[in-house]
Design goal:
globular, 2 domains, eight-stranded mixed beta sheet, 15 helices, homodimer, N-(1-d-carboxylethyl)-l-norvaline Dehydrogenase, domain 2, Rossmann fold, 15% strand
Amino acid sequence: MSIVREKVTIIGSGNWGSVIAKIIGNNVRKYPAVFQESVNMYVFEELVQGKKLTEIINETQENVKYLPNVKLPSNIYAEPDLLKSVKDSSLLIFVLPHQFIDGTLKTLKGNIKSDAKAISLIKGVDVRKGGLDLISHVISRELEVDTSVLMGANIASEIAKEEFSESTLGYKNKDNAELFKLLLETPYFKISTINDIAGVELCGALKNVVAIAAGICDGLNAGQNTKAAVIRIGLMEMKKFARLFYDGVRDETFFESCGIADLIATCQGGRNRKIAEAHAFTGKSFAELEETMLNGQKLQGTLTAMEVHQILEKKDLVDQFPLFNSVYEVVFKDVKCSQLLHKL
Amino acid sequence: MSIVREKVTIIGSGNWGSVIAKIIGNNVRKYPAVFQESVNMYVFEELVQGKKLTEIINETQENVKYLPNVKLPSNIYAEPDLLKSVKDSSLLIFVLPHQFIDGTLKTLKGNIKSDAKAISLIKGVDVRKGGLDLISHVISRELEVDTSVLMGANIASEIAKEEFSESTLGYKNKDNAELFKLLLETPYFKISTINDIAGVELCGALKNVVAIAAGICDGLNAGQNTKAAVIRIGLMEMKKFARLFYDGVRDETFFESCGIADLIATCQGGRNRKIAEAHAFTGKSFAELEETMLNGQKLQGTLTAMEVHQILEKKDLVDQFPLFNSVYEVVFKDVKCSQLLHKL
């Protein structure tokens, strides 16, 4: 019996994608019986000081644009052609910005190995025609592959420095989950697996809405009791929302890194909290603050708050989510921040 | 049928006791059909600038020593004689420091109304002859009364300012829980009830051990992923510990204010976190820092860490609680703080 070893492609090469590439490059060498040594990383080609980013990465083993000063293992190969990058690959790691997923899947459709397995590290939900969709489900459907997810309190720069972190892998197929865990876990990056894709993935999206509420508390100079209560109520609404739309969402998921831990980290640091704090403090609009404070980066929380609101409105369930609704009203309806606390 | 209205006594008059007295004084007036208007507050007598504290409180309606600048309702009567304070009382609110509970119960035994009901706001566990005991159980047993508990993210000074907070009331007898909820809840102090005394009460004690671990993270300048992971792992050990020693501990309890919310607040602020941070940063012993930084207040977390360790050692379960054990070793065994992260 000959065993075909898994060939890995990382689709995406931003900050998080590059950190994951570092982990994967090292791990495939640890388990040569399971994985092929050479790992592809699909890189959206761009010029950095007149030179192609893929060439820089392949020559210097450093993603100078998105993860400077960190050496990638020499078995990471940057490839600007998406289809070439996935050729013969059996494990696909999706780690690119939300807005590029549709185009990427369109190109990949019909062009990947039939027995490929995918995992999504993309945070966010998909709203299509007013309905809720998970990005992992979109990948599964479009490519006809099993798709797991990985979410947690995972600030990329800290993991790049090998500081202790945890993460949660949500799966439907346990064998695939164990394979991805082998590929992604390190002593400083501990992964637990749970059979609840929807719960894990929704945590990653909805936490940003709660972080806006936490930031409003900070901007209003609210006490620690209040902020802790807001985070707790937010977690309860995340759980309720997930349950409402998906079967099989588990309580335990919210105790995992993707749940409370990611929520705690996001409500302490993170840009959603920061912009909301500035809004509560200065009264400037979220759009203006996003423009002046974020250096071209986009706020996820406001977009998710809008999408969640559309979905809840359609189902006539807005009143059951006072925190989500208050965030929506503060961001989009000019409602005063202090109202948020009165509605809880 | 004549209805006997409930007479309330608050046993304790520190910072938290005085804040609770303010709430209770107002609430009994809101529900005159249920509660008698006059409320007793047992005050351990002391002299403040040459005058008795009880006299000051009864004349000025202000606990100048433990809650200055906050007026208590005029129906709060400060009483220095413990037995007089509980005469005819049917609702007993225990809110005094842990170390005074034994003496207090000894005096009260056989001297309270047979149909009295109690609630404990005291945080901490009791270790007797190496075994674990809950303070609410000690009260129940000694006085032969049903005893509920109230715990949560409840920094007293913030509640005194009527900032929004939540709290969790753990009960065995639902009717009594509803009565205490009526007595204690306000629009800014929201109470949820749950049939799990042990879970609620252990949260209030064990969170201080986790706060020491969180403070160590801060002192080591650990990243946000790491601190969030430590808090999460701490919550899981709290849950596991509670389950190990008591039946009927519920998952939901840890989602309540007494669980995650109190833990978040305690791991952000609070003296256990602060002293642990200073220890990790300066290397000075906990005892020395307690002496120099706390102005005579005592650290709960180190004591609880010691008690928990004794109990786990006796049952040969230390290895199943790496975080609790690491905190114990850092505090009492001179183990380096950085070891804490390596053990997780």
